[in-house]
Write a structure and sequence with these properties.
Distance between the termini of chain A: 41 Å
Shape of chain A: globular
Strand content of chain B: over 45%
Oligomer: heterodimer
Subcellular location (chain B): Chromosome, Centromere, Kinetochore; Nucleus
Family (chain B): Belongs to the WD repeat BUB3 family.
Low-confidence stretches of chain A: 219-250, 262-283
Number of helices of chain B: 2
Mean pLDDT of chain B: 92
CATH architecture of chain B: 7 Propeller
CATH superfamily of chain B: YVTN repeat-like/Quinoprotein amine dehydrogenase
Largest interface: A-B, 45 and 56 residues
CATH topology of chain B: Methylamine Dehydrogenase, Chain H
Low-confidence stretches of chain B: 1-6
CATH topology of one domain in chain A: Serine Threonine Protein Phosphatase 5, Tetratricopeptide repeat
Largest sheet of chain A: 2 strands, antiparallel
Strand order of the largest sheet of chain A: 1-2
Number of domains of chain B: 1
Number of strands of chain B: 30
Keywords (chain B): Cell cycle, Cell division, Centromere, Chromosome, Chromosome partition, Kinetochore, Meiosis, Mitosis, Nucleus, Repeat, WD repeat
Number of helices of chain A: 14
Order of helices and strands of chain A: HHHHHHHHHHHEEHEHH
Shape of chain B: globular
Protein name (chain B): Mitotic checkpoint protein BUB3
CATH class of one domain in chain A: Mainly Alpha
CATH architecture of one domain in chain A: Alpha Horseshoe
Radius of gyration of chain B: 19 Å
Number of strands of chain A: 3
Main location (chain B): nucleus
Structural class of chain B: mainly beta
Mean pLDDT of chain A: 70
Chain lengths: 415, 330
């Protein structure tokens, strides 16, 4: 046990937080397995889940996905590409977009929320969910959405999101209320803080300081120096910069935030029919392979100042790489099991957000049949089955699983 | 050319396996003997000349691949994870070892005198055929789907479209890591008999010809082409290319697809030399005999479209001529 605690302490920086926390036993297991390098047990389990995804024959296919994703979260505390979580979430979410019965299943909505947290444009995705009617009866959907607004400092929209949830009758109501109250409390506290910081005297619409003079107190209260504060830190964060009230007399002037009075018509999150996908954000920091001879490196001369080295003129004809050139790796002696870790990151090809892919897929599904009839190609194998999940399968593997199931059925029948 | 079913140059093997055929392999020194492994959990040895089954041995579960070590020893592995060596003279079984998951491929490397197995447990294991015992386990990045030997080099095709080239004399590191130049799942890799490159086939009707030499001039020669596609009502049906076998003398190769066709290709002139008639169902495995006079064709449904009814499985032996297998001199 003592060893286990040390393990946990040593790698806690790498453990991704989960909404629902982690089972400490699973965490121990995952970390010890990683330390010992015994990934084969994990791989076998993963393989078993992948097979189950494909071979599932009941009427609740979401169950396997749900369990698989929860298992991945617990087994790969560091997250990252190795776990395949992002891919899996996207697949899971897309798989059931047509299944109306899951649209307000709390497990499906949970998957959506996890998926959304991985997206670069969570608000768009929530809007998309609303337009599709996914999670509109689930309290967790509104809570997650409101949190996203609050994170951006838009507590008004956060509040109206809750209102929308109440209007739709999202379940469970008490949970929604609990979170709504918590939001209101935070907003109140923020209002208070910012009000206290503000000059409360109304006559002075433009508080100012005289330059190069002593600070003189203005207004009724003697102790407060007029400081120009922007009111904009309202809703900056969740009331973390709570300050002591400066004087008891201020209480009389404290405004209680009341969304019903101040904004008689709270802005509803707009129900759009979502005609066009949002524009994919331009990628930053994207370096493309370039000619080396064009690169200029500042060099320090002997005298300490920087000179720019002239680009060396090659005396030979440099080879121009063909775009389809396969990466040929120089042999190097490192353990083949681990040397994938430091491999260079491939240039990111897809300039699509997950959401855009989602929408394209939907459109594609509708068009697919027509396209196939027109001029397309038809794959003569169970393509969907081989490619669902994170890893690919061959038909031999699926057949092997069918064989195994038949065998175990036979064994059961005999016993 | 020879596009019609002639019948005189081809026959069906008697006493074929009771379930799908996973692999056919000819003896290394005679075109008389053929090994056939099957999903009925057996490996059978056939006398091709006499069209009869000589011997049969059992595994605990379906067998996915088999190979000759020498003319009197067969090696095989499958879903029971076990690697078996069978003495064909004495009909004696030896369990040589095991993988942690089903064994997908079994090959022999003559130059290094080592048996090689690849498995869905993401490893390749080497086996000393004389003792016999395990001679090393080498982790691959993903499940092994296919492997082939080019001289003293080993080409491994795994899930995730990865291709790894190992030096069998020095397995300390991976010599080359590549990505398949085809977009879809790798089905089969076979090395050129001249050891300069390999042919890779994918699950979506495409074949790539690649070279091992990493230099640019050589790499420029690589190419890929579409095949095993059928037009039906204006819709192109794309079939998996499951099998490749090289003609040992001419360096030409045959491909077999789930469309039931067998094509022979001239990789130097980038030409198809011939196409045989359509076989009853998917081509699961192909093997040229050592002298290149015979081609064994396993026509066997592989459940590409699920567990549905299908034509019976069979192995056909076809006599091939130089006209069908020799590159056209220009």
């Amino acid at each position: 046990m003592a060893d286990g605690e040390v393990d946990w302490e040593l790698c806690k920086e790498n453990i991704q937080p989960l909404r629902r926390g982690r089972a400490i036993s699973a965490l121990h297991q995952a970390l010890t397995q990683q330390q010992e390098g015994t990934t084969s047990a994990i791989n076998q389990q993963k393989q078993a889940y992948e097979l189950e995804l494909r071979m599932y024959d009941g009427d609740d296919p979401l169950d396997v996905w749900d369990r698989y994703i929860k298992w991945i979260e617990q087994t790969y505390p560091q997250g990252g590409k190795d776990s395949g979580l992002a891919v899996l979430l996207e697949r899971a979410v897309m798989k059931f977009t047509e299944e109306k019965k899951y649209h307000n299943d709390f497990r499906y909505v949970d998957l959506w929320i996890k998926f959304t947290e991985n997206c670069s444009d969570p608000l768009d995705v929530y809007r998309y969910m609303q337009a599709q009617g996914i999670g509109t009866m689930q309290a967790s959907f509104y809570i997650a959405w409101a949190e996203e607004y609050e994170k951006r400092g838009n507590s008004r929209m956060a509040d109206s999101t809750f209102q929308e949830g109440f209007k739709c009758g999202a379940e469970p109501v008490d949970r929604l209320q609990q979170f709504h109250k918590a939001l209101q409390a935070r907003v109140c506290r923020q209002m208070m803080t910012s009000l206290n910081d503000q000059e409360t005297d109304d006559e002075l619409s433009e508080p100012q300081r005289g330059s190069l003079t002593e600070l003189k107190a203005k207004g009724k209260k003697k102790a407060v120096a007029p400081i120009n504060r922007v009111t904009g830190n309202l809703g900056y964060a969740r009331g973390l910069q709570f300050k002591q009230p400066l004087g008891p007399s201020q209480n009389s002037r404290l405004l209680i935030y009341d969304e019903n009075k101040e904004h008689p018509e709270p802005q509803e999150p707009k129900l759009e029919c979502w005609p066009a996908p949002p524009i994919a954000k331009p990628k930053e920091n994207e370096q493309r392979p370039d000619k080396w001879t064009n690169a200029k490196l500042p060099q320090k001369s002997r005298f300490g100042h920087t000179v720019v080295a002239p680009p060396p003129k090659p005396t030979f004809q440099p080879f121009v790489e063909e775009s389809d050139q396969p990466p040929v790796v120089t042999p190097c002696k490192i353990n083949p099991a681990v040397n994938t870790i430091l491999s260079a990151r491939k240039p990111h090809r897809e300039e699509q957000t997950p959401l855009k892919r989602l929408q394209e897929r939907q459109q594609h599904m509708q068009l697919q049949q027509e396209e196939e009839d027109k001029s397309g190609e038809k794959s003569m194998y169970c393509k969907e089955l081989l490619n669902s999940g994170v890893t690919e399968f061959t038909f031999e593997e699926l057949r092997a699983e069918r064989y195994r199931q038949k065998c175990s059925q036979r064994l059961e029948a005999n016993s | 050319m020879n596009d019609q079913m002639t019948g005189s140059n081809e026959f069906k093997l008697n006493q074929g396996p009771d379930d799908s055929i996973s692999a056919v392999k000819f003896s290394p020194n005679s075109s008389q003997f053929l090994l056939v492994s099957s999903w009925d959990a057996t490996v059978r040895l056939y006398d091709v000349g006499g069209n009869s089954m000589r011997m049969k041995y059992q595994h605990m579960a379906p067998v996915l691949d088999c190979a000759f070590y020498d003319p009197t020893h067969a090696w095989s592995g499958g879903l029971d994870h076990q690697l078996k060596m069978h003495d064909l003279n004495t009909d004696q079984d030896t369990v040589v070892g095991a993988h942690d998951a089903p064994i997908r491929c079994v090959e022999y490397c003559q130059e290094v005198n080592v048996m090689i197995t690849g498995s869905w447990d993401s490893s390749v294991r080497l086996w000393d055929p004389r003792t016999p015992c395990n001679a090393g386990t080498f982790t691959q990045p993903d499940k092994v789907y296919t492997l082939s030997v080019a001289g003293d080099r080993l080409i491994v095709g795994t899930a995730g479209r990865r291709v790894l080239v190992w030096d069998l004399r020095n397995m300390g590191y991976v010599q080359q890591r590549r990505e398949s130049s085809l977009k879809y799942q790798t089905r089969c890799i076979r090395a050129f008999p001249n050891k300069q490159g390999y042919v890779l086939s994918s699950i979506e009707g495409r074949v790539a010809v690649e070279y091992l030499d990493p230099s640019l001039e050589v790499q420029k020669k690589k190419y890929a082409f579409k095949c095993h596609r059928l037009k039906e009502n204006g819709l192109e049906q794309v079939y998996p290319v499951n099998a490749i076998s090289f003609h040992s003398i001419h360096n030409t190769f045959a491909t077999g697809g789930s469309d039931g066709f067998v094509n022979i290709w001239d990789p130097f002139n980038k030409k198809r030399l011939c196409q045989f008639h359509r076989y009853p169902t998917s081509i699961a495995s192909l093997a040229f005999s050592c002298d290149g006079s015979l081609l064994a064709i396993a026509s066997s449904y592989m459940q590409e479209l699920g567990d549905i009814s299908h034509p019976p499985d069979a192995v056909y032996i076809r006599q091939v001529t130089d006209a069908e297998t020799k590159p056209k001199s220009t």
